[in-house]
Amino acid sequence: MRLGQAAIQQKNLPDAVRWFTQAAKETPKDAQVLACLGQALCWQGNREEGLIHLKQSGQLLAKKARKNRDVKLVVDLADQLQYWNDYHGAAELCKLAVQINPGYARGFQLLALSHSRLNQKKPALAAAKQALRLAPDSAMLNILVATMEITDGQLDSARQRLDKTLNTSILKPEEKFRAHKELARVLDKLGIYDQVFEHLHAAGEVSPRLPEVQQQDVQLVPNMLKSNVAEFDHELLGRWKNTAFPANQPAPVFLLGFMRTGTTLTQEVLGAHPGVFVADETDLVVSVVRELQRLCNHQGSVPQMLRQLDLNGVLHLRAFYWQRAKALFGDALDSRLFLDKTTMNSIDLGLINCLFPDAKLVFLLRDPRDVCLSCFMQTMIPTPSTVHLLTWDSTAQFYAQIMNWWETVKPKLSMPYIEFRYEDAVFDFEGAFRNVFDFIGLEWNPDVADFHKHAAGKFIASPSFSQVAQPLYSSSVGRWKQYASEYAAIEQQLEPFLQKYGYS
């Protein structure tokens, strides 16, 4: 165990897995050992195997907790499962925890979050309310209940609860931020449009004080985009376009765009086809970038490192991509067409084209005004990309940076692509998606129209998880018109793209 933990400190995951595996052989009923092995495997990319050990650890912790009713470690383990997107496993552990100790508020809190991410609205609200009964003065639990009430359509109750929370004299920055965001959302749903941006701007003002935001490198993505625009040329992007790649290194279909453009909807429709396997918001491409950096000793930008590669290097990185995919999905990764939907892999489109020139690309477009509004209203986990969506001006600026990169690289791509409009999907569902299926080489299957039935009850990584679990609706098209006066401040950034894509 000590050797494994030392390896973790040195970021040596292979050695950590080796030592923790040895410890698990010697003490197979030790919950801490199994938890360490599970975490190390997940970090290494062997998520399926890692989750097995984490859940075994949780069961052992729950068995021990039955004797002393101390369920803290059980709930901590459920929190780890949520981190690795196993919300089914987290829900089962939380259920055990609250059965053992019905007075532990955090157990109900995490149970509510698990139910929510699985689109189980009623159980989510019930668990959140039980957590609040146990800790009635908690601002964050009041916000959690309001969030669940919004999802359940109890808008007036949510509004009153959030108003009361914001009138509390002392709120932590994260509580104030979340309360303003949720209140903006409920006001929008109630049609009280003239008050929405007041709360969105208030959330934006407090966002720099959030610890998770302070940890982000705000210049990371803009600098990457600047480098990509300057350094990816026809020669580099077309370097391996006529290569015959091995049969065991096939090209995926990549589904990209900007956030809130309809990538999750498209993923769920395509994924409802029996011939498609969806990888939803993974780190596959990011891991390939890290492996490229390792190969090149972290010398230079991504385009510069790609120029150093020979064909063997390209084959190595393609093999690395598929090894990671198989570690993530195991036996589920069968002979179906592999759809890699990780929206902001748009940033790494140059690298994707270089390594997979035989891949197909579906790039989503949507009215830039609706995109920016949806991004600004959404509460997202802070990352080097989402940290740009916290103010109105920076949201528009970031959208313009990403789309400028797309317009720069698009005519240089050697991989085939189509641009797919969200509005076409809404108003001409079958016609629009028939074109996409034709493009990726699959026959039309009418069952994909029931995509929302497939989405209900499963984990979806995108913030759109609740929207795609219901039939397609058109109210999100032209939503920006309710806030037309707000667009004067960002008109200059959006106008070129409104003109380019015919939305003006």
The biggest sheet, with number of strands, parallel, antiparallel or mixed sense and barrel status, is:
5 strands, parallel
How many helical elements? 26
Q: What do we call the CATH topology of the largest domain? A: Rossmann fold
* CATH hierarchy class name of the largest domain: Alpha Beta
**DSSP strand (E) fraction?**
under 5%
Which descriptor suits the 3D outline? globular
Category by helix and strand content: mainly alpha
> Total number of β-strand segments?
5
Show unreliable segments.
458-462
| Whole-number tally of structural domains | 2
Question: What is the architecture of the largest domain at the second tier of CATH?
Answer: 3-Layer(aba) Sandwich
Strand line-up in the sheet with most strands:
2-3-1-4-5
Distance between the termini: 62 Å
Helix-residue proportion: 55-70%
Radius of gyration: 24 Å
CATH-assigned homologous superfamily of the largest domain = P-loop containing nucleotide triphosphate hydrolases
Give structural notes.
The protein is mainly alpha-helical and 504 residues long. It has helices spanning 2-9, 13-26, 31-44, 47-68, 72-83, 87-100, 105-117, 121-134, 139-151, 155-166, 173-190, 196-206, 211-214, 220-231, 234-237, 263-271, 284-295, 302-308, 311-329, 349-355, 368-377, 392-409, 422-427, 429-440, 451-455, 491-500, and strands spanning 253-256, 276-280, 337-341, 360-365, 417-421. It has 26 helices and 5 strands. Strands 2-3-1-4-5 form a 5-stranded parallel beta sheet. It has 2 domains: 1-115, Alpha Horseshoe (Serine Threonine Protein Phosphatase 5, Tetratricopeptide repeat), CATH 1.25.40.10; 220-477, Rossmann fold, CATH 3.40.50. Mean pLDDT is 93; it is low at 458-462.
